[in-house]
Design brief:
alpha/beta; 41% helix; 305 residues; 5-stranded mixed beta sheet
Length: 305
């Protein structure tokens, strides 16, 4: 479990209040409460009990708090020596949005593995709407792709409230994915009028969350759209049927050896769909040397997307 989560547990215990501890830690009340509930679930016991003065530790919580103080003291000494030499096995946990984890990050993982055989990456895939709550709760670095301008401001507010950095590392615009054998695939860009010749394949769950939903009404009204639950299934259909198209972040096929020869993604000139890629992480001083290394490798992987 993250060291910061244990440290936050001690702060709550000392303050006797989630609200006071959240203020002291400069994080939201909701995030801190969720973190403490997650810690109790991991440990399999109640750590706090309510009193007329607020909250206090249970007997089991008192025992665990004593152990945590020892752990924090030891870790403080470790921080002074935290220079990973690459010779010992170390695990770095990180989260990311599905499109990036399924397409770009496999290349990053392979490169990291070749250069640092003892670096173990524990990847947590999640949707954009959920990724920030996971990053705040678990205190791990993450990467979020295809963030539209309107959502970027919302994410910056969440990051600032929870002492996280939101670092832009590249563009990840939505584009229309076509079969290379279709004549339109030879163009440099599409226009809305071009979309009427295609049946569209899409995620059913994206209906209420997709930020550029209006694009779908420009596809063929005479052909029903296809609903599928996995990105790979949609791309497979587009690769085999040249009359089917899809709307995806350009990262979905940008570096894919699987789809690069059969698919192409094109922007829509009169319906721009901008998006960005962001790294989300604590301040550099709060990161381990292995986490800083992983973030550096990610920057190199993503900046040229």
């Amino acid at each position: 479990m993250p060291l910061r989560q244990l440290s936050n547990f001690l702060t709550v215990a000392e303050c006797g209040s989630i609200n006071k501890a959240a203020t002291q830690l400069s994080i939201t009340h909701q995030a801190l409460r969720a973190s403490m509930e997650s810690l109790e679930k991991k440990l399999g016991c109640a750590l706090f009990k309510r009193t007329h003065r607020g909250i206090s530790l249970t007997p089991r919580g008192e025992k665990i708090a004593g152990d945590v103080r020892k752990i924090i003291a030891i870790a403080s000494d470790w921080d002074k020596l935290d220079t990973w030499d690459g010779q010992t096995e170390v695990t770095v946990r990180m989260a990311g949005t599905s499109a990036l984890l399924n397409s770009v990050l496999p290349h990053f993982v392979l490169q990291a593995r070749r250069r640092y055989p003892n670096l173990v990456l524990e990847l947590h895939e999640t949707r954009m709407e959920e990724v920030f709550s996971l990053l705040v709760r678990e205190q791990m670095p993450g990467v979020v792709g295809s963030v539209p301008p309107a959502r970027e401001q919302q994410f910056r507010i969440i990051a600032r409230k929870n002492s996280l950095r939101l670092e832009k590392v590249g563009a990840d615009d939505y584009q229309v994915v076509l079969n290379r054998s279709h004549p339109a695939a030879a163009k440099s860009f599409l226009r809305l009028a071009d979309l009427g010749q295609f049946m569209v394949a899409m995620y059913p769950q994206n209906g209420q969350n997709f930020h550029y939903l209006d694009i779908y009404r420009h596809f063929s009204p005479n052909m029903p759209f296809l609903c599928m639950r996995k990105q790979e299934n949609i791309l497979s259909v587009v690769a085999s049927e040249k009359t089917v198209a899809a709307v995806f972040p350009k990262s979905a096929i940008a570096r894919s050896s699987v789809w690069g020869e059969t698919l192409v993604s094109l922007p829509v000139a009169d319906f721009p769909m901008p998006g960005s890629i962001f790294l989300v992480h604590s301040e550099e001083d709060n990161l381990s040397s292995a986490e800083r290394l992983v973030l550096s490798l990610l920057r190199d992987t993503l900046k040229d997307l």
